[in-house]
Design a protein that fits this description.
- The structure is a single chain.
- The strands form 2 sheets. Strands 2-6-1-7-8 form a 5-stranded parallel beta sheet, sandwiched between helices.
- Helix content is about 50%, strand content about 15%.
- It contains 9 helices and 8 strands.
- It is α/β, with parallel strands linked by helices.
- Helix 1 crosses helix 9, helix 2 crosses helix 4 (about 90-100) and helix 7 (about 145-160) packs across helix 8 (about 165-185).
Amino acid sequence: MIHIAIDGPSGAGKSSLAKGLAARLGINYLDTGALYRTVGYAARERGIRPDDRKAVADMLGSVSVEAAFENGKQMMYLDGKPLGDAIRQHEISSYASAVSAIPEVRAFLLETQRDIARRESVVMDGRDIGTVVLPKADVKIFLTASAEVRAKRRFDELQQKGDKTPYAQILAETKQRDKQDSERTIAPLKQAADAVLLDTSDDTVKQSVDAILAIVRRKLG
């Protein structure tokens, strides 16, 4: 089996590049961020503040979060119901970031991620895949890009969906999320010692996937 860990800050292109890499390699891609988005979504639906550790932790005992691969696409289920794009709402990003800093949430989802890796080859992306979830991954890559580039990517994505959130707001939120993710005490965002750093600021998606694939081939032969 092959296990590839891709980490990096929000907007670095982890999901798009991990999906592209998985497709080129012919293995499954697990978007771990979708797991945290699902927990964040559950908290919002229940009127729970995402930074209320006790309330969120108590909620975990009454929710079921599952990931399934259907025709090569990852689907998220909450209490047996498919969520589709509901977890991709802009507001859910902040919820996901907040709940991911709660130890009970990370423990709740950690075994789910590892169980999938035990069963099959997989590409996973997140913020602590190479350092915590899959510390023995065959290949570890840390993606990065400037905050301005990442905010512009998110702005363009939201514009296509009809969301008119101003660029300045998205940039401020991007910088705040970077600070929150890197300074949290539980599984902070950081590059694994044996991860390869790749800056995608000036590259297209195809160029970035090609670069990652070249790294994988060098590592695995």
